[in-house]
Specification:
Helix content: 40-55%
Strand content: 5-15%
Radius of gyration: 22 Å
CATH class of the largest domain: Alpha Beta
Signal peptide: 1-24
Largest sheet: 6 strands, parallel
Protein name: Polysaccharide deacetylase
GO molecular function, one term: hydrolase activity, acting on carbon-nitrogen (but not peptide) bonds
Number of helices: 12
Keywords: Signal
Pfam families: Polysacc_deac_1
CATH topology of the largest domain: TIM Barrel
Distance between the termini: 14 Å
Bound molecules: zinc ion
Structural class: alpha/beta
Length: 319
Amino acid sequence: MWKKTFAVGIAAVTALLSVSSCNSIVGNTAAQSTVDSLGNPIDNEEALVKKDTVRLMDLLDSLNKGKIQFPAMDSINKVDPKVAKRNMRDSIYRELNKKDKHIYLTFDDGPLIGSSAIDSITTAKNIKISAFLVGKHVNMSKRLKRDFDRYMNNPLVDCYNHSYTHAGNRFHAFYSNPDMATADFEKAEKDLGLKHKIIRMPGRNIWLFDDVRRIDLTSGQQTADMLGVNGYRIYGWDVEWKINGLSGKPVQSVDEMYRRIRNMLGNKSTLKPNNIVLLMHDDMFQNKKGQQLLSSLIDSLKQHKDYKFDFIADYPVKY
Ligand SMILES: [Zn+2]
């Protein structure tokens, strides 16, 4: 049944695209006033309409099993395409708003001082979190080996690959040799006994999975593609929270982070609608002040009955 609904949805969006494109030809004279030095139009109306439609298709894709009321094909041709598109977007938003929202709390660079506190908070709050681990940290001390074991044995913590050496924090040099970089991730996977082929690249906000390929800095591109070919999925983040680990002073307050998460879910500005990936680092939570802030953010988010905490392995949840 959903297949039929989905097919109608695709047809309706495609119809909107063609109607809008026709319309934008009419409006092209005005749009052409914005041109670059070579005379090519910059982000003209047609490009914007296309961009908007691609976004609608993406939103629709996340609802591919849902039941959504689409306007009849006849009516699309009769009404103003802008109005039709707005109606379409509103119905997709309405459907998405009825569904659960999925929050991925991700912690990078562990095990570090801070990891054991995160492990305890997760257990106390009974929520799932995702840890992107650095292989070499496990062997730096007995304490960190113990904290790594705690993560691995906690069913509420899922562990993923953040490389073996963390690129020695020389990211450009590291990614200039994709073979060596790939070998570094493979070493972490083997040493730590990781069960997922899921990576977050140090120093880069890169997404590469299914049909998604988002590269923030080109120097990581070749390594990302090689990892992709080798069967890895790579995840970046939608929003980052920064706290000074030693002082426990946050760059963004709990309230600010809470509002950003709520707003991004509300206006569908995350990479995948109704799914939000939050980046934090283990060393942010080495002191009591930082730990209290983390607990407090989790409590704020838990007030929403439709907010669920999920593992990155389940990203993105569709309906
Ligand atoms: Zn890192």
